[in-house]
Amino acid sequence: MSGTPAHPSPSSAPPAEPSAPAGEQRTAAGLLGIVVAQASFLVAVMYFLGAVYLTAFYSYFRLDSFSLGFGFAEMAIQSLNVVTAPLAIVCVLAVLIARHLATSPTPATPSDTDEEGFQERLIRGLVRALRAVARAHLYVVGSGLALLIAWPWLGVFRWAAPLLLGVGILLGQSPWAASRVTDGDLAAPQTTSPQAAAPPIAVASRTWSRAVPVFTAGLLVTWGLSLATGTLGEQEAREAAANLIRRPAVVLLSTDRLSLAGPGLEVTDLGAKNHYRYRYTGLRRLIERNGRYYLLPLGWTHRTGPTYVIQDGGNLRVELFPGTQEDREA
């Protein structure tokens, strides 16, 4: 018998503890990165649109929105004023179509049977329409160019020209733009060998044919959104000026006479026995920031109306009242 000890067989080794697959960890990290990137992009867009909206709104009253001291969160929240019913409908339909394209396989053209729900048929119809529009993207770009030529006569609809150009370019980069298959089928994917490395010329060609058009379309869409947001802000400023009497009424009480004069502004001398001798009525509050009141007289007009900036202090008292109460201010 040999004295050499027997080595334990590999099968007798203790089993390794199960661990999470590396693929799942990478998937979770990638999903978190995508969520963070999309959230950051969304917040940046909200800040941009909010800044454009506030600039257009307060510029109508000869004020600089950045001098009012709005923070990042306030700018982003103001972008919600851009959300209207038609825009909400378009966003919901876009989300439904994107979800349908991401979750549904690529079958042959389906038939509209009774088993297929109304929502599914509606989404499929919208997808067919989107593919048809994508194949006609050159007409969309041409419409945008025609609107650019008619730019001086577009007025408040100038935002449509860059928006059509950007959307047309984006549709031209979709896989449906050059597809000639039926509406129910997707374009056949191009199969390439994973080992085959693209030559430098092909990489440069792909950059010019994909990255540059997408970047250009993004700039055009951003331009169109900024024009539309600015138009909306100015329209709401005009509406606020037309309904100035509904805004909070302001009464100024001062120890000394103020150099205020304007249409609709009234001054009352309460007598020397009162600490606040002079009372000013006929004012409406536009906004208040850090103790400063930005006021408009009731007869304010965009052409000649003044905007008062009043700092609340020891010799001045500001009183606020509900709007549409002009007859009770005296």
Polypeptide structure, described:
- The chain has 7 helices and 6 strands, in the order H-H-H-H-H-H-H-E-E-E-E-E-E.
- Helix 1 packs across helix 7.
- The protein has 330 residues and is an alpha+beta fold.
How much helix is in the residues? 40-55%
| CA distance, first residue to last residue | 122 Å
* Gross morphology: elongated
If you average the pLDDT, what whole number results?
77
SSE series = HHHHHHHEEEEEE
- How would a textbook summarize the main sheet? 6 strands, antiparallel
Count of discrete alpha- or pi-helical segments spanning 4 or more residues: 7
Index terms:
six-stranded antiparallel beta sheet, elongated, 330 residues, alpha+beta
Q: What's the layout of helices and strands?
A:
Blueprint: H1 22-59, H2 72-78, H3 85-103, H4 118-135, H5 137-149, H6 160-172, H7 200-242, E1 249-254, E2 266-269, E3 278-289, E4 292-297, E5 308-311, E6 316-321
Antiparallel strand pairs: 1-3, 1-6, 2-3, 3-4, 4-5
Helix pairs in contact: 1-2, 1-7, 3-4, 5-6, 6-7
Summarize the structure.
The protein is α+β, with helices and mostly antiparallel strands. It is 46% helix and 12% strand.
